[in-house]
Amino acid sequence: MNQTSVTSMQRVLTTLGHREPDRVPFFLLATLHGAKEVGLPIKTYFSDPANVVEGQMRLLAKYRHDCIYSFFYAPVEIAAFGGEVIFTDDGPPNSGEPVIKKTGDIKNLAVPDVKNTPCLEKVLTATHRLKERVKDTVPIIGVVMSPFSLPVMQMGFDRYFDLMYDKPDLFAHLMQVNQAFCVEWANAQLAAGATAICYFDPVSSTTITTRDMYLKTGFTVAGQTLAKINGPTATHMASGRCLPIIDDIAGTGTAAVGVSCHEDIALVKNACRGKLTVIGNLNGIEMCRWSSEDAENHVKAVIAKAGAGGGCILSDNHGEIPFQVPDDVLMAISEAVHTWGRYPLD
Amino acid sequence: MTDKIVDAFTRALVDVDRLAAKQIVQNRGHDASPVKFAEDVVLPALESIGAGWQAGTFALSQVYMAGRICEDLIDQILPPEDPDRKNQPKMAICILSDHHKLGKIIVYSFLRASGFDLADYGVMEVDDLVEQVQKDSIEILLISVLMLPSALKIKAVKQKLDRLRCDVKLIVGGAPFRFDDRLWKTVGADAMCRDASDAVSVIENIMKGMA
Ligand code: B12
Questions:
Q1: Which residue from B188, B150, B190, B189 is spatially nearest to A324, judged by alpha carbons?
Q2: Which of A129, A225, A267, B111 has the CB geometry, 3.0–4.6 Å to B116, for a possible disulfide?
Q3: pLDDT tens-place string over residues A23-40
Q4: Does the beta carbon of A240 sit less than 6 angstroms from any atom of ligand 1?
Q5: Domain span including residue B145
Q6: What is the predicted ipTM?
């Protein structure tokens, strides 16, 4: 295929079909760098969807990558549940005190109404306007937290583990509430113009839970949830490990998986061949101190290990580039993909 | 013999089998003092679970539950005020700036289960932390973070403590340090731990230097 005539959408669809497009697709999953591009503080940037549209469009033009990332930040879902979002000047917003203060609160937890929640509406508006700008040429990646991973922000990690081990009934109820929300939230983003949904599920990673626990919990929840989402999905482990559960992940009905830099992407690619596309696995945190040469070498290594035969999207390993990563490094990554990612690879 | 007990205890912990773990503690025999049991059985078990987590064979859920179970069991045989816990440098642990408590909870459990005692400062910002450390004459300060911007703030803690001539050793840990193995030096820490169980040997090394 001729590089200039191929759109990002075609490139990505080809690789998802486990065939080789003109070059390895590149997802620059940057949120905070949009604020840098438009010259606004992070909090102001996310307060108006117009800023996010402008930020994403500028990132696309500057780094010539292959997606729009309509994700704002994970705690937007916590805000929807009535929780607090804490902004900082130099990093992603975080969730504040848990909305579930006592385990008993789970019984009274209501599913937020996606269509009437201002913080979610902003994301939907941005998605819609981005779709008007890129039409079908560039895939728009929307984001949801998995019903199984969201409780860490809803109630704190320690209490969530206690719930998982000791209170199966309340755990099941929380999953029901979160599933209902997740499905509605994903489908609203798809209706607004998102091409696919990235399902963030690091609590399912073997970094966090055992495979036994996963099969009883995160796996079942993912299967049920993804079946109700009206579009393609990719599962992201947010830099948690996944090699021992690759076949299980494929069984949840997802099309792709985000891979940690703590795993050898060659092994993961082998396990995924023909079943799942791998997305990864550059180390975003280390990236803060990379030279242009480091960036080029890391990109070359991922392409050499996982590029052959398609089924591979070059990206960071977490699904978000830290604010501290210099533009030069992002540019070097982009240039390296454009130089070394051309098929046929040699 | 001890090896077998350590293996059985480790198994009970990773299976989250509280009863089996409790039985091993109860059957430890009269000659095993609580401190000796913590050193010979609990610590090696927690260390192998920590190492298994780093290697990808165990999950964090097991690390967390193991810490919880051990902390409870050890508290029963070695209460917080037990004089055996006392002969230690003054230590404190905190979370810097972010609201993610799990790392600190695990490290705190592991250290207490290994026979150490330490103050828990909870979530702190830079200036309050420096003030508290100076006031309490802390000798070893453990800091846990989850977010990169919080990790970067450790640099300011270090600078302010130096300016006040506080002779405090800084041990840091948390996800950002596991993704960049040079970050701890950049922020001016004395040591970094990849998992909670590493803390014991790092503290023991620092204690040797202090002696
Ligand atoms: C699960 C997960 C999630 C879940 C739950 C997160 C949570 N805890 O609230 C979800 C999906 C909700 C999520 C969301 C986000 N996440 Co997240 N997530 C993870 C993941 C996979 C595990 C995090 C975790 O809680 N681990 C449990 C703790 C206990 O592990 P730990 O810190 O490593 O601690 C161990 C050791 O390091 C050690 N230790 C810890 N502290 C100390 C201290 C001392 C003194 C010692 C000795 C040892 C020690 O002991 C512990 C056990 O042995 C990590 C990546 C990873 N592979 O670790 C990313 C990660 C933490 N996430 C990250 C980010 C950025 C986010 C978001 C801000 C994304 C966004 N833009 O919205 C949100 C914020 C969430 C919030 N609460 O506000 C980044 C943070 C670093 C950064 N880039 O700034 C990470 C590191 C991913 C990455 N590779 O960049 N995330």
A1: B150
A2: B111
A3: 999 999 999 999 999 999
A4: yes
A5: 91-210
A6: 0.96
